[in-house]
Amino acid sequence: MSLQSFGFFGFLLVVAAVYLHLPQRWQSAFLLAASWVFYALAMPSMLSVTIAIAVFTYLCGRGMTAREGARKTAFLRIGVVGLLAILAFFKYNGAFASDGGWQAVAMPLGISFYSFAAISYLIDAARGDCEVEKNFIDCALFLNFFATVTQGPICRAGALLPQFKEEHRFDAARTVRALRLMALGLFKLVAVSDVLGLLVDEVFPNYRSYGGPMLVLAAVFYTFQLYFNFSGYSEVARAVGLLLGLELPENFKTPFFATNFSGFWSRWHISFSSWLQDYLFMPLAWADVSGLTGGKTSRLPAEFCVFTVFFVSGFWHGNTLPFVVWGLLQASYRLGEELLHRRLGKPKKKAPARVLWAKRAGVFVLWCVSMVFFRVGSSPAAAPLTVGDAFAYLGRCFMGWGPARFASELYAAASGGFYANAIMVAAYSYMALVPIVQPPVIRLCTTKKERLIRMPYQKGSVSKTTKILFPIVVTMLAGLVAPASVALVGFLMFGNLLRECGVLNALSETAQNVLANLITIVLGLTVAGQMTADKFVRPDTLLILALGLVAFIFDTAGGVFFAKLLNLFLPEGKKINPMIGAAGISAFPMSGRVVNQMGLAEDNQNFLLMYSISVNVSGQIASVIAGGLILTLMSSCV
């Protein structure tokens, strides 16, 4: 169960409603049970492993409180070494698998995150930075909290455990903050990361077919895809915690504005990079190695410590060679930066803007190069790529730099990634039938007197809370009635939530104006490019156009007659102009505008746009839900 799925939001709604009304003494136990249910739904086969790690961590912590001196240190060592051994086994046992011998054991979901959280808890408890948790429920909840168990952020015991001791109740202001943060996170995940991934997934497996510009563009797209995916997930997790009254750590702070890699890693995946800083780099940097060097030196070189940290980070991210190379690149970047500082001196704090932007560009380019190895290491098992493919990919970035080739490849990638099916072209094309079909059908079903009906303006206001809750409730109800409709209804409602949340005005205005126009142009060009005779003039596409024609005629007539039926029961002065009934189809906003133009043609003072657009929006939502119901019924009958 992913944090952006409809199932999760239903789960979260139930958990929050119960949790925030329970007595304080039962809240942690309920939240732990909910977290285990969440994990069981996501990966039931590994729930026992997750619980066992929580028990092991708790017992090691309790052992440290019952012992002093060497015995206390022994429990710490057993805990840290044991957790690292468990993590290494699940992460790398697949490397020893063979057809006739060892069979690989699947890696428990999120083990990299909650293992590191457990290690930090034991070390902090040994240092005295936090208290050893005596309550198993709170200790297990710290490790298994459903918002963080799969992808972090990696929380610190000293910050999160005390929050479990507090009573949490519903707070309107906090809930609004949580919903705003969740809206931003979902936008990053769904509207940016997933969309960029469509083109990335088209180019990377077929990189040998593309020239340099397209490969560079795909690498840049993947860099942003990964950022928006990671940061979006972290913000949804933080929003979930906030909804329940828990403050989780911020994980990303505009990393692409960093002017060096030291600054970059203080902004990127902060909970992980700070973990490496506190529990790996600092112990290495302050370790007394005089016994190993015969007294020649008492400290390890800083360069060695930096190299070790980033080398380990590569292994933590994945168990294949591309991730090792990625880690080596990060170590090289960081060490090269330190060597430059030693030779040329530390950079000035107040450098000219052009220098700062040049540094940011340099950091971004080098990061994009490393991301090629990260994407290759993350390639699916069905289409595996090797470290050799990553080097070949980078080599091909310098080849095929012709504008004509780039334009054709960009079109091919967009066509293959976004608009691969000619049926989709026909589905978009039949929208053009609306201004042709609707006016004569409306005139045929109405009299001139009915078309002249004026609908008085009704002044009213809707509360901010209602505007925010409306898209959330509609999406939930759509999922309960017709699960197949959730994806599209969710997109429609997310745009509404983006506008009404009140903190993303610039983003909302861009989406409504500039972005909408750009997407319309790109969509038109792409659809037009697909409308060739061999792809478009086919029985299946022509059948869709014919069905669309019939559907529009019946929808239009049905909406008009339904409005006329309502007028039979409405008094004079409150009757509905039956033309707005025709706007209750999925062609938004074209149908609403057609109805408004027809009203103005009959009476130039009869403005029906507000009413027709509201009907048009309702019809669009209802059409999606109806389509989902049909798909559900058809799939159950097959």
Would you give an account of this structure?
- The protein has helices at 6-19, 24-42, 47-66, 70-92, 111-127, 136-144, 157-164, 172-203, 212-243, 261-265, 270-286, 290-293, 302-317, 321-344, 353-377, 387-396, 403-417, 422-429, 434-445, 448-451, 464-481, 486-500, 505-512, 514-530, 533-536, 539-567, 590-602, 609-637.
- It is globular, with a radius of gyration of 30 Å.
- The protein has 638 residues and is mostly helical.
- The longest helix has 32 residues, at 172-203.
- The chain has 28 helices and no strands.
Number of helices: 28
Describe the biggest sheet?
A: none
Distance between the termini: 26 Å
State the secondary-structure class: mainly alpha
> What is the approximate shape?
globular
Q: What value does the average pLDDT take?
A: 84
Low-confidence stretches: none
**Number of distinct beta strands:** 0
Strand content bin: under 5%
Secondary-structure element order, N to C: HHHHHHHHHHHHHHHHHHHHHHHHHHHH
- The radius of gyration computed from the alpha-carbon positions, rounded to a whole number of angstroms, is 30 Å
As a percent range, the share of helical residues equals: over 70%
